[in-house]
Automatic annotation (TrEMBL):
One of its GO terms (molecular function) is chemokine activity. One of its GO terms (biological process) is immune response. GO terms for cellular component: extracellular space. It holds the Pfam family IL8. It comes from the Eukaryota. Coiled coil: none annotated. Residues 1-22 form the signal peptide. It comes from Struthio camelus australis. Residues 24-86 form the Chemokine interleukin-8-like domain. Keywords: Cytokine, Signal. This is C-X-C motif chemokine 14.
Amino acid sequence: MKLLTAALLLLFIAMCLASAEGVKCKCTRKGPKIRFSNVRKLEIKPRYPFCVEEMIIVTLWTRVRGEQQHCLNPKRQNTVRLLKWYRVWKEKGR
């Protein structure tokens, strides 16, 4: 009986760790400067306990490289401008 309880507890811990893996901080490295016209999608993820700052993930499209995802530094002036531009662009219905 103790062996069964220990196995179930171990299975439960493994499942908890596996589900926490999906919400880890993805932005360990910040991306390059970007052109606003290449932006396809912009995602703002909230700050998690294990991330220092919020995650801003941008999906770019270029003819040469196709679709690529980059993390942006939320404190950079270029990123702040991009967020303002993207909100205005979305409000116009594009």
